[in-house]
Amino acid sequence: MSLAADLLAGVITGFTRVVTGAQARWIGCGPTAIQRIYFANHTSHADFALIWASLPGDLRVRTRPVAGADYWEKGRVRRYFIHEVLHAVLIERAGTTRTRDPIETIVAALEPGDSLIVFPEGTRNVSDEMLLPFKSGIYRVACRRPDVELVPVWMENLGRVLPKGEVIPVPLLCSINFGTPMRLVPGEEKQAFLGRARQALLDLAAAARPQ
Amino acid sequence: MTPYQKHTLLLTGGIFAVLIIASVVGWALKLRLAPERPHSVIDNLNARVKAWWLMVVVIGLALLAGKGGVIVLFAFASFTALREYATLVPTRRADHWVLLLCFFFFIPFQYFLIWIEWYGLYSILIPVYAFLVLPMIAAVRGDVRNFMQRSATIQWGLMITVYCLSYVPALLTLNIPGYA
């Protein structure tokens, strides 16, 4: 990691904290240094930055976001950002043209003990739905690595701070909530697991909202 | 001593006297009724008294710094108030530019107009121009869902958190004989 990229990462996390005023709320688990897969709702590019900003420094360096190669490999700025600053794991989303199975890529990235951030909706949610249906990837990763715990992360308001396609953020207040870790139950079917994971995130959202 | 100095002294003295009495009462209550254990009413009262101390000190410092200090303080108050407000009201993606304008144009420009004392413009900047321009910008984005509701919510938020608040520092520009 170069010094410039380090500095940039610091600037981004600091900036995100100031703009969103977000405090991390560890509702279902603590910020402990064990291997985890954080799965979160995805509404904005700032999602990466906010999860990152709310992790303690020692966890942050061992936590890598999973992102779509088709989007992030376009252009020098994006490439620098995703590789040097975020150290992302890039996966190829388009099924027809890909040369490498994304599940293999993700499982390989878990090998050295790093934690991952995934967005199981697969893309940024711009609909009026709270949460899009989950892609099956998280289930397939859980099958391969049932020992790694899955932590739901709900981020409130970020999609309004920096919606898809916008450049300047509006300084609204956000919150980031970490829920109770879950695991694949032995013999659990795909649909059942995906439904359970999605419901865990929705429940967390309901718990995080002021009544 | 001019009447102006006399009144200022009386006001500041009065405020400090009230605060000191309140602090002493709160401290005595705590000592008599709930020493070394939490008591929701007394602790709440004491927290409020402390908050008033802070407010008095901050506003006092701003007043000492002069017109600029007061304007900066209230611009910041507007910013945080609008931030809280906009966080709670339902806006849509199409309102993004509108919100950006509110935060990064109307707050600074309104307080700048008060700084240069252009009464003719600062008295109508938000109730006329912002009210006309903001719904237009929202409409250009093509999302008509709850359009009237969204426009009205943002307009009134801006009115209360920026326009109304900005009239406090604007009071400083009033020309009262003997209090220049």
User: What is the number of beta strands of chain A?
Assistant: 7
Terminal Cα span of chain B? 15 Å
- Overall geometry of chain B comes to flat
Main sheet specs of chain B: none
Low-confidence stretches of chain A: none
Describe the sheet with the most strands of chain A.
Answer: 7 strands, mixed
Secondary structure category of chain A: alpha/beta
User: Roughly what percent helix of chain B?
Assistant: over 70%
Structural class of chain B: mainly alpha
Strand content of chain A: 15-25%
Rg of chain A: 16 Å
Helix-strand string of chain A: HEEHHEHHEHEHEHEH
Unreliable residue runs of chain B = none
- Any idea what the radius of gyration of chain B is? 21 Å
* Strand line-up in the sheet with most strands of chain A: 1-7-6-2-5-3-4
Question: What is the count of β-strands of chain B?
Answer: 0
Quaternary state, please?
A: heterodimer
Total discrete domains of chain B: 2
Total helical segments of chain A: 9
User: Percentage of helical residues of chain A?
Assistant: 40-55%
What does this molecule look like?
The complex is a heterodimer of chains A (211) and B (180). Helices cover 40% and strands 16% of the residues of chain A. Chain A has helices at residues 3-20, 46-54, 57-60, 69-72, 76-85, 102-110, 137-144, 158-161, 190-208; strands at 24-26, 36-40, 63-68, 89-91, 115-118, 149-156, 175-178. In chain A, strands 1-7-6-2-5-3-4 form a 7-stranded mixed sheet, sandwiched between helices. Chain B has 2 domains: 3-65; 67-173. The longest helix of chain B has 31 residues, at 3-33. Chain B is flat.
In short:
Chain A has 211 residues and is α/β, with parallel strands linked by helices. Helix content of chain A is 40%, strand content 16%. Chain A has 9 helices and 7 strands; from the N terminus they run αββααβααβαβαβαβα.
Notable characteristics:
heterodimer, A: 211 residues, alpha/beta, seven-stranded mixed sheet, 9 helices, B: 180 residues, mainly alpha, 2 domains, 7 helices, 79% helix
